[in-house]
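Exam revision sheet. Question 4 asks you to relate a sequence to its structure. Input first:
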Amino acid sequence: MLEIFLVIWLSKKLGEILEEKGYKKGWYIAMFVGSWIFCEFVMILIFIMLFSVENNLALIPVGICGGAIAYGCMYLFVNSLPEKEVEDIRGEFKLD
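Answer key, structure tokens:
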């Protein structure tokens, strides 16, 4: 349950960065949530293949580490995006 709140909070942080740069945040946040889930499952599968797991509770931190890797990659991607040029009402481009 707490992981869901963490994903929502991190999504809002990414959305703020995207809005400051002039991008729409919807698809980027969907990409982040999808990559979070995908990386969780991949990390858990790798952990299960490498180590014999007797306790399923040991898989929870491994999955969260996979999600953290997904957030780190998405954070670097979002910060590497250039700022969009904002078009003025008259059709002229403003350079800030």
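Marking note for examiners. The chain has one domain: 10-80.
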